[in-house]
Design brief:
15 helices, globular, Jelly Rolls, 23% strand, alpha+beta, 20% helix, 811 residues, 5 domains, eleven-stranded mixed sheet
Length: 811
């Protein structure tokens, strides 16, 4: 699946268009099949369902087994099991197409013949692999639930033991769900996606056992998922039956118990009228798609129909909840669906928050369902090609899909395979005609440089894939990025990176040495950056330094001088991208992990896979949201209009990282400190930014330098792009902050100067002429031609201007 750290959220409003659905839902009755007691010769009761023997449904070489010493309170379905020594399956007759609920029950007991906890196996439903190398701890009951679109007359649940192992199953449930149970847009164009239920939460209430649910689902309480328990309170359980209405939710979407409980935002401290966002954090798999359903029911007596509040999914994707858009009666259930891509944190946050104290007395939530989207093999490849098409032209999409299909028909060969041990110099990728073929590097050379991608040479891993250190045959040290299928970024990013880096050469932009596209490999070869990323040096979570007082345990080794120099270098590289070419290039993924340092700590901006080229007049570009959580420009996210000012916002977050030595987002902190941009702006506006700086910098930053730096951060993080500076202004401001710091350091070394002049070194900044915002004079050591303004005039370097500034003389 293509990895977009911020995939656009498709919220579905349950509007009158879907009213016709609900007569079918109200007519739905819970089916009587299939409920299978695996490995048993008789039927067993589980809840209010009767599980029948699997004699007629199991196929292949199988044996049955039973627990010789079952626990007294253990259900009968967990006392027997079907054992598979070889690939086997259950085949079920289907008499109605639609969405089916499939539940697989596992309980690894031990018998004289088998120790089920040793089983290792794969499971596929409807030919979709849903469990890989699966195992269950001893004496632990586990069930896995899936929603599957079934369109054939037969349905298979397949079991494939790992080598020298076996598979087992205790019970299977499979029954048709109500019509339109999952919206069509979530099923993909072919309807082949499978949804695995990860979390099903009764917000504000306790556990709901299957016997109390309309579809025999189990719901758990939400307290252990709350980010800050003090920010929320349970709503007293609503005793009446919810008021189900056409256009809203039905009793099959969630049971009454879910809609009869809720959590609302609480008040804390002295400001009793102030309410805060309520946030829940859920563990999810990294970098995959998820289908999220949020349940709402107004059971809060003081809430009026005019109430509005926001829902946030994964920290940025938002939806306005307007109760007046729904049934005016109290306790009227409805829900929202969205599809969102998880990021690399392994955590998905869901929040509700009021818009303002006067408008909304409370924000609330009744239930949450999170399902991981498992795509049928092959669908992800098609999607991957679809997103290559930047223009969105339907014709191009179709052509890309056709080309991909042809490419995937080629047999994949492992690196180094072939007659005589050589490699086939043929690319299965359809490269753009304007790709720089002079940069192509043979796969065999890449293999030799990295010692066949030896894990010992791996130095990092990112959205594109793993990164290896290597040495080419000419002795040049390189960093090799190798794409992994399904890992994240794909063909579009591969092409973009090559196209951008083949056009540019700048001291503060990482250099592309070459690329390889043989045998379905996507490999990028860069100059090797000896000191790694800026992030590594700020908070790589090394062992805690004694006496540092740092709760995170991170250690920063960069002085304030070094941090300013690094930020200045990165800013120069960004300014060159924005103005130094025929048309601007917008990076779109500026973060500390994408600022690399060479052996002399010279900063270079890297990772151009998400970058976009724009028009010469810097007007906005309409585009899908891409970027990294915590760095994303809020205006870009809201409007989908990308400008170079989006990079400026992200760079403002990087400046705060350099100052505070902490991540842009840290979910382990208290609510108000989670987002670095919000936290930093809070203290900057109070004029107390010094309170949150890296403890290793305390007492080592000139106050004037810190003040200028804080002003620069504040300008970069303005809510609207028009209020943010251009990167040339950022460069000047950072250089000035460095000059103030150097002047103070020189004064400390020469204290007699102060006594002679009688001046304090803490003077207001001198006034000097600014170049036009689209011009950046270049230091003499820059490895590119000087830039000129629109009239062709060149300008002296900033160092020349600063040489005329003498703080002591107050010029």
């Amino acid at each position: 699946m293509e990895d977009f750290r911020f995939r656009r959220c498709f919220f579905m409003i349950l509007c009158p268009l879907f009213i016709s659905v609900f007569p079918f839902l109200s007519a739905y009755t819970f089916p009587e099949k299939y409920f299978i007691n695996c490995g048993s010769n008789s039927s067993s009761l589980f809840g209010n369902r009767t599980f029948v023997s699997d004699k007629k449904t199991a196929a292949g070489e199988t044996v049955s087994d039973s627990d010789p010493t079952p626990e007294s309170n253990l259900s009968a379905i967990y006392q027997t099991a079907r054992i598979f020594k070889n690939p086997s399956y259950y085949e079920l007759e289907i008499d109605q197409i639609g969405i089916y609920v499939v539940r697989l029950h596992f309980y690894p007991f031990s018998s004289s013949q088998n120790i089920l906890s040793l089983a290792r196996f794969d499971v596929a439903v409807s030919k979709v692999l849903v469990l890989s190398n699966f195992s269950v701890p001893n004496k632990t009951s586990v069930f896995k639930e899936f929603l599957v679109s079934v369109k054939d007359s037969k349905f298979r649940v397949e079991f494939n033991p790992q080598e020298s192992s076996f598979a087992f199953i205790n019970a299977i449930e499979m029954f048709v769900a109500p019509e339109n149970f999952i919206p069509g847009w979530a099923l993909s164009g072919t309807g082949d996606n499978v949804f695995q239920v990860i979390h099903r939460i009764n917000v504000g209430g306790s556990v709901i056992p299957p016997g109390n649910d309309t579809l025999m689902r189990e719901w758990v309480g939400d307290d252990r998922f709350l980010f800050s328990k003090g920010m929320a309170k349970n709503v007293t359980q609503y005793s009446k039956k919810p008021n189900y209405f056409n256009g809203g939710a039905s009793e099959y979407d969630a049971p009454d118990y879910v809609y009869q409980t809720a959590k609302e935002g609480s008040t804390t401290g002295q400001n009793r009228d102030q309410r805060f966002n309520v946030t829940w954090s859920f563990d999810v798999e990294e970098n995959v798609g998820h289908f999220v359903r949020l349940h709402f029911c107004n059971i809060i007596s003081e809430v009026e129909n005019g109430t509005e509040f926001n829902v946030y999914v994964n920290g940025g994707l938002s939806r306005l909840i307007r109760l007046q858009d729904y049934n005016s009666s109290p306790a009227s259930p409805f829900y929202f669906d969205c599809e969102v891509e998880s990021d690399g944190s392994g955590v998905m946050n869901i929040s509700v928050g009021v818009l303002g104290d006067d408008l909304s007395p409370a924000a609330f939530l009744n239930g949450v369902e999170i399902m991981q989207v498992i795509e049928r093999e092959g669908n992800s490849g098609v999607k991957r090609w679809v997103f290559v098409v930047i223009s969105g032209c339907l014709v191009v999409v179709v052509l890309a899909g056709i080309v991909l299909f042809c490419c995937l028909k080629s047999r994949r060969r492992k690196p180094g395979e072939g007659d005589g041990g050589g490699t086939e110099m043929t690319s299965v990728f359809c490269m753009s005609p304007d790709m720089n073929l002079d940069l192509r590097v043979p796969l065999v050379e890449v293999i030799l440089a990295t010692n066949s991608f030896d894990p010992k040479n791996m130095i990092g891993e990112g959205g594109f894939g793993k990164v290896y250190k290597g040495t080419l045959q000419n002795g040049v040290k390189v960093a090799v990025k190798r794409s992994e299928p399904g890992h994240g970024q794909g063909l579009q990013e591969f092409h973009t990176e090559i196209m951008v880096l083949s056009r540019i050469r700048h001291r503060h932009l990482v250099s592309l040495i070459g690329y390889c596209s043989e045998q379905e490999e996507m490999i990028l070869v860069y100059e090797f950056m000896e000191k790694g990323t800026l992030r590594d040096h700020l908070y790589s979570f090394k062992p805690q330094q004694p006496g540092s007082g740092r709760s995170s345990g991170s250690v920063s080794v960069l002085s304030w001088d070094q941090r300013l120099e690094i930020c200045i270098g990165a800013a120069k590289g960004l300014h060159y991208l924005h103005t130094g070419l025929d048309g601007p290039i917008i990076h779109r993924d500026i973060k500390s992990a994408n600022i690399l340092l060479d052996e002399n700590y010279v900063a270079k901006v890297a990772d151009f896979g998400l970058s976009r080229s724009g028009p010469n007049d810097f007007s906005h570009i309409s585009t899908d949201v891409k970027g990294s959580f915590g760095y994303l420009d809020p205006e870009y996210f809201r409007s989908l209009q990308l400008t170079q000012k989006s990079d400026v916002y992200s760079f403002g977050v990087v400046l705060l990282e350099a100052l505070c030595a902490r991540p842009a987002v840290n979910n382990m902190l208290v609510r108000e400190e989670v987002n670095l941009a919000d936290w930093g702006m809070f203290w900057q506006k109070k004029g107390e930014l010094d309170k949150i700086i890296d403890p290793l910098l305390v007492g080592k930053i000139d106050p004037n330098s810190l003040r200028k730096f804080g002003e620069t951060v504040e300008k970069c993080l303005q809510e609207y792009g028009v209020d943010r500076p251009n990167m040339v202004d950022v460069v000047w401001d950072l250089k000035y902050a460095l000059q103030l710091h150097h002047s103070a350091m020189r004064r400390e070394l020469q204290p007699e100067d102060d006594s002679r002049t009688g001046y304090s070194w803490q003077l207001p900044p001198p006034v000097f002429h600014r170049f036009p915002s689209h011009i950046m004079p270049i230091d003499r050591d820059e490895e590119c031609e000087p830039l000129t303004d629109s009239l062709g005039n060149s300008h002296s370097s900033p160092s020349a201007v600063f040489s005329q500034l003498r703080i002591n003389d107050a010029r």
